[in-house]
Amino acid sequence: MSDDSDRTMMRRPALEDTGAEPMLHMLVIEAPGEAPRRLPLRQATLRLGRVADNDIVLPSV
Question: pTM of the prediction?
């Protein structure tokens, strides 16, 4: 079981709620000495953190 203190919830409004055209949002993760990681944000809700069961897993620094 994971501890929720090591995750961040990210939400975006549903397209039906905004009337907007679909747009691909990207999360760019930059770390010293590594190429930037570009991750498409396709889900309405993502879990971000260092625990392996998150949707986007960040490396420990």
Answer: 0.50
Which residue do the tokens 């994971």 mark? Answer: 2
For residue 40, give both structure tokens: 């498409």
How do residues 7-53 score in pLDDT, each as one tens digit? 666 666 565 555 555 567 888 888 888 899 888 888 888 898 999 99
How many C-beta neighbours within 10 Å does residue 39 have?
Answer: 14
The size of the chain, in residues, is 61
Three-state SS at 54: coil
Instruction: Kindly give, in sequence order, each residue whose CB lies less than 8 Å from that of residue 26, ignoring residues fewer than 6 positions away.
Output: 38, 39, 40, 41
> Any idea what DSSP says for residue 51?
S
- For residue 18, give Cα distances in angstroms to 15, 25, 26, 46, 58: 5, 15, 19, 19, 30
